[in-house]
């Protein structure tokens, strides 16, 4: 008999829970419910099917019937079984946790402490109203104050103090954990970007990649603190509060429960719009950062051409777009918070209305009403925070996608490069029918072949955009040819380890890269192991850098500034050449060396390269006549092809492109001399 009564109570409870909620769902509002994860949908459908079978069996056994075969139930069932989209919030939460776990694994102990503290805070927050309600009931029903009330009030005071201490510990742990995770993420990003292909890094630019390290990583810190930790605490509190409310008076809980789907439907409708606005705002912020980085680097050109007004207009256009997208995001987030406050307000009114009936029927005491109302009030900021957490989630998801794209970029070399090391003996370089394509420029090299031997100074020249720098990057392994091969002492550059290839080559790029530090630190940057001081002094003496260092007050410890801004272009080139020589590589690859030097320094560098070529293989891309005159062999590139080769004299006598280039240079020199006189 007891079992029969319990079953009938369960049946009535099922009807009272399900039917009001189903009545709120419009048949035409199908799209509003299409936001459920596939895994969750299968699990829910399985559980519903099992529950429905049990209820139907027990109902048939007891001779009672539950009529839930309405069109709305059929619609709900069909919605659950559909193929739903992948960009679902539960799936995203799971993906975020899975993504964070490699960076959190090392702090498992801190996570356990943080979870324990969070659970204690939630237990205190949900349990304190119960104590207050009990105290009120005791005060109402008794004319004197029993000693237990004082003990309970003391317990409340201790709980308040303990809650404050726990919140302080929680925030400290969250801050410490988020900083440690951010440091690991940045270290991993830097490792991946250093190993990423050169073209990948250049296409994205310094400004955009800097945002990944600063803005996107900070957003993930915010997600960890406000999204995961606070969200988990709020969910746990909601679950505990609903259990307490159901135990106190489940009639009132069922009465206010139908308002929750209203908030859910509004959330599902507004969330896609909020996601789109957040994505647009983040994209526009990246464009603004890239614009500012570009203009700050070229501020001298802005001043030289007096482009203040035009740059201000460009900046205003970018900031207006950013403000427009940010406003859309704020509007949608505000709507969601407003709906949450309104829903909770209606719930409060319903609680009072239902409480009047329950108290009059003797099913509820005044203390229980206070507990009910207090817990409902504590749930109000949680629903408001859901909107904030959702916005953080949307913005952080964009950051997570960006960082994940970097982490998934294929490195330029295998993680464990077990290819054989390059062994340089004769120092011969053979470029055999090499073709190469670059993003945005198409084919830049077409079946290029050349040879460079030790004891030779080999020069590559040609018009701008002919592929000289690309060819040098191929030699260094910064790019890989689409066709053909590069051999060093009969060893394919693609089949040897990248570390051994680059350690055998000293490189001076066209755009000199110096790092903020001393001159000595920049020269030693290319040295993988310690070198004797004699080699450092020798590299400075060979390049003539020792004379510059003697004139500087701080000598070797003189700081060069960011990008070498404290030095002239010629001084930066000398330091870059000394850096390439300090490691004593058997091969030197130089791009436009001497382009920033005066005529005397240029001639000195050219003679230095000729002496260095006696013991090394040197390949230099240049337009400088002083270097070309001394080169043992010159290859002329035009539109990605080798159109001429020979010595300086041979190419002049051939009256081809090389001769025309020097004829134009001679005419320019004569015009300059005439102007000076």
Low-confidence stretches: 1-45, 58-90, 666-677
Q: From the coordinates shown, what is the CATH architecture of the largest domain? A: Up-down Bundle
CATH homologous superfamily placement of the largest domain: ABC transporter type 1, transmembrane domain
Distance between the termini: 122 Å
CATH topology of the largest domain: ABC transporter transmembrane region fold
CATH class of the largest domain: Mainly Alpha
Taking strands numbered 1, 2, ... along the chain, how are they ordered across the largest sheet?
Answer: 6-7-8-3-9-10
Output the number of helix runs: 22
**Largest beta-sheet details:** 6 strands, mixed
**Number of structural units classed as domains:** 4
- Rg: 37 Å
Assembly of the depicted chains = single chain
- Beta-strand portion reads 5-15%
Total DSSP E strands: 10
Overall pLDDT confidence: 77
| Helix proportion | 55-70%
What is the global morphology? elongated
- Structural class assignment: alpha/beta
